[in-house]
Amino acid sequence: MTEYTGNPLLWVALVALVAAAVLISRQRKAARALRQQVQGLRDHYTELENDYGKSVRAAQERAEDETKTVLKSAMRTLQGLAAEQQLVLSRLQNKYGDSALLQDLLEIDHTNSQFGRRAQSIAVLCDGWLGGRRDTASVYDVVRSAQGRIRHFRRVDILSQVDFGITSRAVEPVALALAELLDNATSYSSPDTVVEINIRTVPKGICVVVDDAGVGMSDEERVRADKLLATERASGVAGLGNPPQFGFAVIGLLCERFGFEVSVDSSSPYGGVRAVVLLPHELLTAMPEKKAPAPAARGTAARPVPDAGGPEAASLAPSQTGDGLPRRRRKRPMAIVPGSASAPRAAARSDSEQAQVMGAFQRGTQSGRTTGPASPDDAERTSDTPGASSEGHEVS
Amino acid sequence: MTGQDGWQPEAPELVRPYVITKGRGLPDEDDLSLITLVTASAGQSQRPARLSPEEQSLLDLCSAGYLSVAEIAGHTRFPLGVVRILLASLMEGGHLMTRPPVARARLADKEILEEVLNGLRAKFG
Question: Which GO molecular-function terms appear in the entry (chain A) (predicted)?
Answer without folding.
Answer: kinase activity
